[in-house]
């Protein structure tokens, strides 16, 4: 067995075995998923979502996120790139740009839901800032804001 296969099996054991790689997830993303977070940034965002969910500082789902964007709440909006039909949430990036909110797409709604502590896939989550995970939030905020916005 080669070293890469050993590494793969070790990571599969850690994550439960059925998790798809970043490359495999990229196959299913839709055409509007731009700016797409890199593998490294996706991991950071999942960790930040997990911490925020622990402190009940997330908004989950299209209706809830949309409502709080309209109310002027601040945070990072994380959208799942594999959501179909796109009509469900294609208006959210425009709303984010109008309110100057940073947003990024990640490849999987299943992983996004799981990181929020839910058994259901989630297509959009807003991470609200909080003192308990300020470092992780600020790091994600900086990297998401640095992503190039679509034309």
Automatic annotation (TrEMBL):
The gene is NHP2. Pfam families: Ribosomal_L7Ae. One of its GO terms (molecular function) is RNA binding. GO terms for cellular component: box H/ACA snoRNP complex. It comes from the Eukaryota. Residues 1-22 are annotated as: Disordered. This is H/ACA ribonucleoprotein complex subunit 2. It comes from Ictalurus punctatus (Channel catfish). Belongs to the eukaryotic ribosomal protein eL8 family. Residues 44-136 form the Ribosomal protein eL8/eL30/eS12/Gadd45 domain. Keywords: Nucleus, Ribonucleoprotein, Ribosome biogenesis, RNA-binding, rRNA processing. PANTHER family: RIBOSOMAL PROTEIN L7AE FAMILY MEMBER. SUPFAM superfamilies: L30e-like. It is found in: Nucleus, Nucleolus. Common component of the spliceosome and rRNA processing machinery. GO terms for biological process: mRNA splicing, via spliceosome; rRNA processing; snRNA pseudouridine synthesis. InterPro entries: eL8/uL1-like, H/ACA_rnp_Nhp2-like, Ribosomal_eL30-like_sf, Ribosomal_eL8/eL30/eS12/Gad45, Ribosomal_eL8/Nhp2. The keyword RNA-binding applies. Transmembrane segments: none annotated.
